[in-house]
Every structure is written in C-alpha cells, then in structure tokens.
Amino acid sequence: MLLLLLLPLPLLLLLLLLLLPPLALLRQPQDARPSWLAGLQHRMAGGVLCWAAAWQQRRLEQSTLHASQSQHQALTWCLRESRRPRGPLQGTTDISTFRNHLPLIKASQAQEEESGGQLLPSMSTQCYGEASLQATLLGRAALSKAFPEVLTPGGIACVTPTSPWLRPLPWPWRILDQVVSAPGAKHPGALLLEALRSPGLRALEAGTATELLDVFSGLEANGEELAEAMAAGNPGPPLPSRAAELREALDLGPRGLALRLWPKLQVVVTLDAGGQTEAVAALGALWCHGLAFFSPAYAASGGVVGLNLWPEQAHGHYLLPPGAPFIELLPVKEGAQEEAASTVLLAEAQKGEEYELVLTNHAGLARCRLGDVVQVVGAYNQCPVVRFVGRLGQALNVRGEDIQEDVFSEALSRAVGQWPGAKLLDHSCVESSILGKLLRQPLPPVLELAAPPYHTHPEGRALGKR
C-alpha cells in the first residue's frame, strides 16, 4: 500500500482503473466482460507479477549469497515463533548450541508430543507462509520465461481439485490463476470436461503426477460419456464438433493423446518430488508424450523445502533456500543410517553427495529427519541444488531380501529399456507363485522383476489386465 501512495497520481489512477474495475464486472465470468477490459487486466496483472517475482528474485540472491547468515536468521525466527516450548533451549539462537544439545528425531517421533500424546498441528500446503508465496511467484515467473505463451488468456487449466502451486495468487494476480476452470467445481470429471471444451490450452496443471495419471485413465474409461456431455451442452453450450474431436483422439490410443486434444499444449505442471518419478515417466511415455514437465516446488509436511527455477530441466532440480524452515543435511552412508554423521549446513554441502533432509520449523518440528534423500547436483551461490533420490526405509522384498526402492526402480527401467517398443505403465512387486517347489530349493541370487499389470503392444497401448 505504501508503494502505491508513492506512485505518481496519473499512474496510480491508471492502476486503479485497470486493476479495480466495478464490482459488478468482477463478479462476471471473464468471457462476459468486455474483451478490451479483460485484456488490459491480464496484461497489467502479468506486469505486476513480473515486478513481484523480480523483487523475490533479488531477495533470493541476497539470502543465497550469505547462506550461513540467512540460515542463522531462519533458525532464530523458527525458535521465536515456535508453537511449543523447548525446555532449556528456549530462547537459543546459536546454531552450534542448537545442533549439539538437541537430538535428531525421526518423522514418526515428531507426530506426537512427549506428554499427553497430542498430535502436532498439521501443515497443509496453504500454511507454508511467505515461502509458499515466494515459490509460487518465482515458479510462475520461470514458467512464463521458458514458455512465454502459457500465460495468455485462456491458456491454463487445472484438471484436479488440488493445485501444483502451493499458494493461490492474491489479487490482482488471480486473473492469471486457473484461467480455464469450472466455477466452484471440485470433482475431477467436471474440471476435465471444462478443460476439454478449450482446445487452445497451452499448459495443463495437476496437483501431482499420480493424480494426472488417474485423470487420463478416467478419460479413456469415460471418454464416450464426456463426449456426449459436450455434444449435449452439459454444462455450457453444445459443442458437437469438439465431441467428435474427442472421440477421434481417443480412437487413436493413449500415446500422444494430450497433444491431439490440445494441439497448442506446451507444458504439464505438477508436483513430482517425493515418489512421483514413475508416474511422470508413464505420462511422458504415453498420454503426455512430447510435452515438457515442470514441478514448481519441493514441499514436505514441514514446509517448502526447495524451489525449481529451471523449467527447461528434464528432471526436477531444486534449490534449497536458506530461509525458513531451517534445513540441515544429514550425510547418507551405506548401511549406517542409524549412526549417521553429524549434520551439515547448506553452504557445507558437497556436490555428488547424498543427504537426508532435516527440518526445524515454527510449527513444532525440531531437527526432524524427513526420510527424504537428495543428491547435490550443483550450486546456486552458496546453496545446493539437489534432485530427489528416494526415501530411507522404503525397501522391497522381491526375493527374500531387502532392496532399496530407487535401486529396484532403476533396474526395472533398464529391463524395460531392453524390451523393444515396450512402455512401462505401472508395476507391482511380489514373490512369484509360479515357481512352485523351486522356491524351496537353493537358488542363486536373482532380481525377479514383476511384469506391468497391463499387457502392452509395441506402441505401449494397454490391451487389458493380466
């Protein structure tokens, strides 16, 4: 508000005219407003978004240039704003004292208070505070820079009730948020139907890659019903030609379906950190073949952990910022997770090494081991850039032995790559029952790969369940 008062009067009046139209117009759908007004509002909102993102970028630059100082400030804030006392460490602001006197705890231990067994308050994605707004602003700015046409009016649709953006944009940026959507719709079917009515989409959004996988599976299963609804005008005006396009696109199979439905589509925006790798791979191999994927942030139950500033990267790379929550990195050593070394701060991370994330926030978590393992792939000023590797303790019993989930996934991907023309849709992992008596005889160590739950032909189209 103070910045608005400092603007020249003519510019201030112009902003008021463009960003604060009559209330009656605001309540109308965008299509019902005068086109010139909607266009002006959209351009002005885009300009304000760029300004706000540039301001957040400058703050990020300063904080990452002085990572140790920024982390000290983050810890001080987390402890000062904490929702529960810390006994003798109450009021501590020294990082060394904090790390030396407060033990590491696992996420399971952090779920209950030491006395009374009361559960800690949950952290929804809407409660991440300023970090979530920073992630949203910088993520949208990076997305619009990599794909300039995405933020054009009517260019975005979210097809799931949850959003990949951790915080809804406030006014006036709300003009850019969910440009295509069914008013008040929460059911995925209604959201998908509204998106199908808009052939000019340039970006498709979903809360997670797994949710989007379910959307496309539902589209194939209920495609005829959706086509009939569009042809009948339920809801909205009848679109028989668009219904015919939907039927024709579905008849050609799942591979490249998204681009057949939306020829201008450029990017799919989902949250994919933390176990979404296979869902992204399945989408990229079939329904979303030929499209880029962008995960704007790395979020955990304790807060916003990482920012993705590189939409052009094929796999999500995340900058670990030095602000709240306070992040420590616990080196992961083979077979020594329980007796791991002491933690390191962000500026001390080494490229190529793997670390478990340790979080402290203002909502009650104190030195909580998340179980998420990341690998340092680069640096941004003094802060590490990481990729998600997997979770500790996620082991699979394939053949009487424990195999880490990431090791199994890599082996399975390599095996599928040796099967000409096959595409992996999904997989399960069970001990084989067809070996019969052989299971009771000594066998050499083997890695038994479970087949996908669908038979596939060379184009990867599902032919039916086993």
Automatic annotation (TrEMBL):
Residues 219-284 form the GH3 domain. GO terms for cellular component: cytoplasm. One of its GO terms (molecular function) is acid-amino acid ligase activity. Keywords: Signal. The keyword Amino-acid biosynthesis does not apply. Pfam families: GH3_M (PF23571), GH3_N_vert (PF25146). This is GH3 domain-containing protein. It comes from Gulo gulo (Wolverine).
